[in-house]
Write a structure and sequence with these properties.
Blueprint (H helix, E strand, L loop, with lengths): L9 H28 L1 H15 L13 H30 L5 H40 L1
């Protein structure tokens, strides 16, 4: 039986937090396993601006024997975190929500909405505008 969040003891709050962390971790691990399968396609998408500014005769290489594997692991972990953020934010909200007043709850929704929109617009701007300029400078500098 679910307890009333407003009448829980400190240990019960910690237990709820622990369960939410476990749920989020399980989902992120599952997403990492799924995104590992697509990590080459994700890596190609990430490297597209670099490939456009590299000289035609050059290419990207790995310098260590395990580096290709670890790059794919990192890409899959970051992609899992990115795709799992809505689930993570849901659990954060469900943990924090009982402690907020009605006025505070009304402020959160527009803030989250606009923060998400501006974050995505910032990512798009960085990928399409800033990254090509920065990579072009760095490639020409070397």
């Amino acid at each position: 039986m679910k307890k009333d969040p407003n009448n829980m003891t400190l240990l019960e709050h910690l237990e709820e937090l622990r369960l939410r962390i476990i749920y989020v971790t399980i989902v992120l691990v599952i997403l990492a396993l799924i995104t590992f399968h697509y990590s080459l396609q994700i890596l190609q998408f990430i490297m597209e601006p670099l490939i456009k500014v590299l000289p035609k005769t050059s290419h990207v290489i790995f310098t260590g024997i395990t580096e290709a594997f670890w790059v794919r692991m990192e890409v899959s972990l970051y992609a899992a975190l990115l795709f799992g953020l809505p689930y993570v934010f849901y659990h954060i909200w469900m943990f924090v929500n009982p402690g907020l007043t009605k006025k505070e709850k009304k402020v959160v929704l527009p803030f989250v909405l606009f923060a998400t929109i501006f974050f995505l617009l910032g990512c798009l701007f960085a990928y399409k505008v800033i990254l090509p300029i920065g990579l072009k400078f760095l490639v020409s500098y070397g």
